[in-house]
Amino acid sequence: MKLENIYNILNAEIPHALSDRYVAAYGGHDNSGILLNTGEEIERAVFSLDLSRAAIERAVVRGAKLIVTHHPAIYYPVSELSIADAMGKKLLDCAKNGISVVAMHLNADCAPRGVDYYLAQAAGASDEENVPVQPVEGGGYGRVFTIADITAKELANTLRQTLGAERLWVFGGEQKIGRAASFCGAGVDGDTIKIAKERGAQALISADIKHNYICEALDLGMNVIELTHYASENYGFHKIYQNLKDKLGVASEYCDDGFML
């Protein structure tokens, strides 16, 4: 099967336009889409949150000629590819082995059943409240929702079990909380903290949170639960894979880098 045919299927389910709309509305940068096209016929694909060494080795061993990632291996324009550079070597290894690479980043975050949606679901959001607080046409990012009255540590334990998270950090007290906000990946900044507070969130769930934003959230009376970036997104991207695998027209599998949890 040609890469373009598979990409059309992916794009129909997780439209690239979601990324464009989010960047236009809220700023930032993205580079989702086809990043490397080797022209090889594809009979098997590997999905992975990152273009990791494990994903490439899996693809080589299994004869997969496509790797679909969440995070773009090429994020900003590059002036050269070199084996002396870690990502450059991985891309060159893919090219050498005829493996094409596709990324679904902000579009997968913002999809109605996307990475951000599934993080909120893992934290206990109902479908009725699992709606984006930064909306764009067809999707959006960030959630604020009601949860059972539990402490931040109890909420963290729920996330640990559901996401398989081995490392997380809890900042806050022992008081019961009834509303939470979640932003997959590195989504916390002054704007999202303001949205969370205005909508009554008593706990903030995200990853890669800068120290000053942790302090700001605590000063505003919110608890903070910080996951690894991988743990905050791998659960949702794997769910996306499960929803897509029977629609691709080729065999596929998912590669976990569990040590990143």
UniProtKB/TrEMBL annotation:
InterPro entries reported in the protein's UniProt record: DUF34/NIF3 (IPR002678), DUF34/NIF3_sf (IPR036069)
GO cellular component: a single term: cytoplasm
Family annotation (Pfam families): DUF34_NIF3
Signal peptide: none
Swiss-Prot/TrEMBL keywords: Metal-binding
One example GO MF annotation: metal ion binding
Binding-site list for a divalent metal cation: 70-71, 109, 229, 233
Family: Belongs to the GTP cyclohydrolase I type 2/NIF3 family.
Name of the protein this chain belongs to: GTP cyclohydrolase 1 type 2 homolog
